[in-house]
Amino acid sequence: MKLSKILSRSNRFRLLRLKSRLNGKYIPGELPFTWDTTIYNRSAVISKVIGLIGATSYLEIGCFTDAVFKAIDCKHKVGVDPARGGTVRATSDDFFASNRETFDVIFVDGLHTYEQVRVDLLNSFKVLNEGGVILMHDCLPLNYDEQAIPCQSKAWTGDVWKAAFEFKQNPDIDMRIIVLDHGVGILKSCKNTQLKSFSTDNFADLDFNFFQQKYEELGLMEYDDVEDFVRQK
Question: What is the pTM assigned to this prediction?
Answer without folding.
Answer: 0.89
